[in-house]
Amino acid sequence: MTERLSMRSLGQLAVGVERFGYDRAATTIGVAHLGPGAFHRAHQAWFFDRLLETDPRWAISGIAPKSTTLPDALAPQDGLYALAELEAVTRVRVIGAMTEVLAASRDPAAVLARLAAPATRWLGLTVTEKGYGLDAAGDLDHRNPDIAADLAGRGQGTPRSAVGWVVAGLAARRAAGHGPFVVASCDNLPANGRKLRHAVMQMAAERDAELAAWIEGEARFPSSMVDSITPAADGALLALVESRLGLVDAAPVQREGFVQWVLEDDLGPGAPDLGAVGVTLTSDVEGYEAAKLRLLNGAHSSLAYLGLARGFETVAEAAADPELGALLRDLMIIDIAPAVRAPKGMDVGAYIEAILKRFANPAIRHRLIQIAMDGSQKLPIRLLATVQEALDDGRPVARLGLAVAGWMAFVARETAAGRPLLDPLADRLAATVSDGGAAALLEVREVFPARLAQDARFRAAVREGLNGLGIVATA
Ligand code: CS2
Hints:
The chain is an alpha/beta fold. The chain is 45% helix and 11% strand. It has two domains: 10-282, NAD(P)-binding Rossmann-like Domain (Rossmann fold); 286-468, N-(1-d-carboxylethyl)-l-norvaline Dehydrogenase, domain 2, CATH 1.10.1040.10. Bound molecules: D-mannonic acid.
């Protein structure tokens, strides 16, 4: 029986497996992270693992806001896990940075103590677009049950939302006489730091005006752009890692070799020196965000829905299809790129070619259905803003309309097949297509603002797109 990866079995690691070189026992936890899922553990934790080689203050406490699955998987492993970088040559590294994993639903007091600890100087979040509980205007969505409960609770009881935990942590720090931690959103939202700050201020103001004033004056919420294609773990990864380590890892992660973190250069004194481990610190995060969210993520979502409609399973398969590949290239170069205010010095053409090469990576099995989830949250950010700007500029939107129609057809197809939609608006979307067909989704205002939905040029492009996908649409 192969032994489990842990600090005790680390000495049995197979020869040639990369691992952290620092003395883990000499580190202290300086980072708390809400949402320690695959992306955090493959991306930010990899940077902090490298920083720990020279600065022991930045070990991570992973805080699972709702589930106990990951804490239970990592506890027997002392928080250790393997990261596989899948390229022509696959590299595997044991990451030691996560020295604590907490389940907020099981031990809220431990979570609050960690957030309030003087040594905790950084609170990261990867809770996905839906995890912030914001409405289309970027305000706290009072219809979100976790947000509503935390607003009503006014700080009493255990937080239920990510924003609630940020406020509770800051309140505890203020009460203890400590300064705030840096609050670093690492999700695919434009101006993620500003959006999170706004949400935290709204919730804090409901709780205590003086707390809100303190947060406003003292706390920093840098925006960031994060990028690395990180497919969900699968059986192949578990087998690969066991064969490489010679040990069993119940919670490995995998990603491509490319990894980028662009962080707003507003971290304040005492922050981790992330620039020393390859993080780009800049005042122009917005340009990097626009390029990545609209070009990479916009292309990803378009490929997911149009690829699934053609029966493809992975990004590489769909991108290799001659017709889809040509459409994707034109969509990026002709339709999306003109709407992207890229950062100074970025060669957008080269950036697009690099993305297409990354999509074609044969070592990565990135399932389209993973990208297709949460479309109601992703589409406005990744495609609809680009559509509106194209319409305002008088540019054609046929391909963009087809991509949007791809999502609508996906919702209709999954609903007709009785397969559950993974989307915070799942019930609403299923009911809408059941009553009015795919085209009726244009009336879902949480996704399609009225100005866009009522634009005849956009409606025609979507209608054409649906017809091209075999869905007769007259609306
Ligand atoms: C993907 C992203 O699942 C998805 O929605 O588009 O996770 C994508 O892989 C990352 O943003 C790449 O950095």
